[in-house]
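Table S2 (continued). Query chain:
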Amino acid sequence: MHEKIQAYTKRLKLSWIKEHFREVEATTHEEFLLKLFEAEIQQREERRTNLLLTQATLPKVRGKTYDWSEVQIPAGMTRDILLNGEFIERQENAIFYGGVGAGKTYLATLIGLNAIQKFGKSVKFYTVAGLVNRLLEANEKGTLSKLFKQVEKLDCLILDELSYIPLHKQGGELLFQVIRCVMRQKASSSQPISSSVNGTTSLAIPF
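Corresponding output:
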């Protein structure tokens, strides 16, 4: 019987149940099944979250509290709306504008982490220079359409250091194509761009 259970759970791709069903204690059959399914679902959700975090390539954060003292938040916007990613659901863009060390990248990273861990969103972080290099490489290899499709599937694209490094003509044109692609997708799905821009210390959310 044990071999059959192992075989069936493998076919059904119930990996946690396959390895741990003997460890579950319950007083009724219903409770036993419920505990099995809850544990299986929890493991799948954890695996999905870890995969999303890996794919997002977010910068590492030190766990310090974000300093909001120098941040100017426009009317109609709150910290919770930003951190909970409500603008993503509303298909709106967020632009963080401030001087070096103002915490733009840190805030964008926190938003990305929350979007993944709390809401299971697909997020990708790029520096603009890094994305442009990817675009140029894909263009040379003939895989540009594949990269565009990957971007189209995202819930949130974070572009950092948008005006930090001057871009040559081809790189700028390819970057514009990505942004236009994302904006076009917003008509049918949640595809916001969160951009970190070098400049003076302030925060603007354009609608």
